[in-house]
Amino acid sequence: MLIHNADIAEIFNEIADLLEIQGENPFRVRAYRNAARSVSESSKNVRTMIAEGADLKTIPAIGDDLALKIREIVATGSCPLLASLRAQLPSAVVALLRVPGLGPKRVRQLYEQLHVQSLEQLEQAAAEGRIHTLRGFGPLTEAHILANLRGRLDKSHRYQFAQASQRAEALLVWLAALPDVERVEAAGSLRRLRDTVGDIDILVTSREPAAVTQRFVAYDDVSAVLARGPTRASVALRGGLQVDLRVVEPECYGAALTYFTGSKAHNVALRRLGQELGLKVNEYGVFRGKTCIAGETEESVYASVGLPWIAPELREDRGEIEAARVAALPTLVTRSDLRGDLHTHTLASDGRASLCEMALAARERGLSYLAVTDHSKRLAMTHGLDATRLAAQIGEIDQLNAQLTGITLLKGIEVDILEDGRLDLPNAVLARLDLVIGAIHSHFDLPRERQTERILRALDHPSMTMLAHPSGRLIGSREPSDIDMLRVIRKARERGCFLELNAQPERLDLTDTVCRMAKDHGVLVSINSDAHSVAQLDNLRYGVNQARRGWLEKADVLNARSLAQLRPLLARTMRSRVREASESP
DNA sequence: GCCGTTTTCGGCCCGACTGTTTTCAGTCG
Questions:
Q1: Total structural domains in chain A?
Q2: Which residues fall within 8 angstroms of residue A119, CB to CB, at 6 or more apart?
Q3: Beta carbon of A229 within 7 Å of strand B?
Q4: What DSSP state is assigned to residue A480?
Q5: pLDDT tens across A198-253, in order?
Q6: d(CA A348, C1' B5) / Å
Q7: Contact by Cβ (8 Å): A61, A54
Q8: What is the 3-state secondary structure (H, E, C) of A224-262?
Q9: Which domain holds residue A282?
């Protein structure tokens, strides 16, 4: 079995869960969790590192012991520590940790005293009234457990950013209408613009916190009040989405916003930095002894630990603090940097607007070029184009370009990458286009090696310009395909191809960490709406969010180039195509 | 178990709320 970083992370996380349930030293537990996160976010594949003789301890949070364990796992496919932990405690119990209200201590009690080791057994025990007999549990806790199980609530469930964002907006308006509210803002992963959010965090400044929490729990969409104190409250909205509210005095705004924006790992790093300077950082401010020295603005909080303000999108403890320290933070790309959109559909396949309507809508949105990239024939259900219809569309676009001002249509195709890596249309017609986007729409579950080879072969096609939504994931409904993205990125670099960051809110594919990997390898990313209608051109903003999380700057983004700058980049790949086409007929 | 411009040992971020307790452990963010 070939071990990848994700496998290592999974093993370390399970070890952490099992150690925690066993009541192990919490710092040891955290060491495993930190290591899991670090390995899964690392752009370096541990198997490759070992093969190349690189030092695993260069990965943050990996020391002598864990480096050894990683080597062992890669060599043998298994981890003796995990095996021995599983022998003491069935690994199924870790599922109990996902139930709201259950942590390691209670899970251990449930297992040891009631022999509960699955969600089904937990529900049965709760229904039979056996849980409230345990010390530390009571009838309320038992009732909550049962309600959470029956409501299928799960601490780890995450929602698409766009959906959570819309619900947050409405709630912010509701809160802002209260006169006692001074400022109200979404924080947490929403403010960090993560592609998925687990819950909504809202920060309010007010002199009357009780009035704020009262209005909060009275919101029409609230289905349950989970907790409610004087400055903090949590509710579940209909459908299960949790919202946490925190109310602070205006003087604490910056400190509270920093704290509530997170991420947790970023906060921990920030507080540690404060500690080294003899400061205490919390949600009320930055303190030297009992004296508050900062906290009204985020800038003041960062300045107190010697840093410039860091954009929320970067706050993941992925090197942003080190970069801030040496004034090397990226200047992140913005929506207004985008000059065009390189992936859109029209009525010719499964789009809902005509060529002309799409062109005018793009112009209205400040874009100066738009690539028309309908599907190819293999996607029959989308009425994909064959060579003849594509040739006809090329003619239409030429005609339209002659009439339009302020916007230029580029001729393209979203061509299917077949199971064996060939493309769905002959090169004769592909070579006439301005760009060719290759995409996978079938066989998402090939083994990693075959899936990767399939993509590498497609990238080797003489007409290939760009790889669309590489992982194929649909947030909440389809898992990403198993692909060695490092090899894909290296091939793209070698071929002069580009990677798409698909901006549809359910795709957001590339992920943030892969964006950063592309940047590190000098592969330009194109932020594409994949619009199937005029309105979906606005998806670009979600793509920009994701790009910012991936540290992308204007220079890293293909479609932040003007048309004049873009054409030679596309033509450069074109020249190599022509040369190769003549070499190999 | 990691880590080090004080440290190779002794630290490891900080606080709110709940439910179950008679003063606080557990969970969560």
A1: 4
A2: A95, A96, A99, A149
A3: yes
A4: P
A5: 999 999 999 999 899 999 999 999 988 888 888 899 998 988 899 999 999 999 99
A6: 65
A7: no
A8: EEEEECCCEEEEEECCCCEEEEEEECHHHHHHHHHHHHC
A9: 261-329
pLDDT attached to residue A576: 53
Please name which of A128, A137, A126 lies closest in space to residue A103, comparing C-alpha atoms.
Answer: A137
For chain A residues 137-196, those near strand B by a CB cutoff of 7 A are 137-142, 144, 155, 188
Q: Are residues A438 and A420 in the same domain?
A: yes
Q: Which nucleotide is nearest to A284 (CA to C1')?
A: B15
Percent above pLDDT 70 for chain A:
98
In CATH, what number is assigned to the domain containing residue A186? Answer: 3.30.460.10
Distance A23 CA to B11 C1' (A): 20
Other beta carbons within 10 Å of A203 = 24
The separation, in Å, between residue A229 CA and nucleotide B18 C1' comes to 10
Length of chain A: 585
How many angstroms is C1' of B5 away from CA of A325?
A: 15
Burial state string for A11-42 with b = 16 or more CB within 10 A and e = fewer than 16: bbbbbbbbbbbeebeeeebebbbbbbbbbbbb
* Residue A129 approaches strand B within 7 Å at CB: no
Q: Under a CB-based contact definition with an 8 Å cutoff, are residues A333 and A282 in contact?
A: no
Q: How far apart (Å, rounded) are the C-alpha atoms in residues A375 and A349?
A: 6
- With distances taken from each CA to the C1' atom of nucleotide B24, the closest residue turns out to be A136
Q: Are residues A419 and A556 in the same domain?
A: yes
C1’ B17 / CA A321, Å: 31
For residue A25, give the nucleotide whose C1' atom is nearest its CA.
Answer: B1
Integer distance in angstroms from CA A310 to C1' B12?
A: 24
Protein CA A213 to sugar C1' B13 (Å):
27
Last residue of some domain: A119, A154, A189?
A: A154
Q: How many Cα atoms are found within 13 Å in the side-chain-facing hemisphere of A551?
A: 20
Does residue A86 form part of some domain?
yes
Q: Which nucleotide is nearest to A65 (CA to C1')?
A: B1
Q: Are residues A217 and A129 in the same domain?
A: no
* Strand B–CB A280 distance below 7 A: yes
- Residue A178 CA to residue A566 CA, distance in Å, equals 50
Q: Whose CA is closest to A164, among A241, A270, A254, A263?
A: A241
Q: Which nucleotides in chain B lie less than 7 Å from some protein C-beta?
A: 1-3, 6-7, 11-21, 25-29
Does an H or E element contain A391, and which?
A: helix A387-403
A276 CA, B7 C1': Å apart: 12
Q: Which residues of A456-474 are buried (b: 16+ CB within 10 A; e: fewer)?
A: bbbbebbbbbbbbbbbbbb
**Does residue A538 lie within any of the structural domains?**
yes
Distance A449 CA to B4 C1' (A): 41
Structure confidence at residue A278 (pLDDT): 85
Supply A287's token pair: 């303190």
Closest CA to A297 of A185, A463, A446, A458: A185
Does pTM surpass 0.85?
yes
A17 in contact with nucleic chain B (CB within 7 A): no
Question: What pLDDT is attached to residue A157?
Answer: 84
pLDDT digits (tens, 9 = 90+) for A280-289: 888 899 998 8
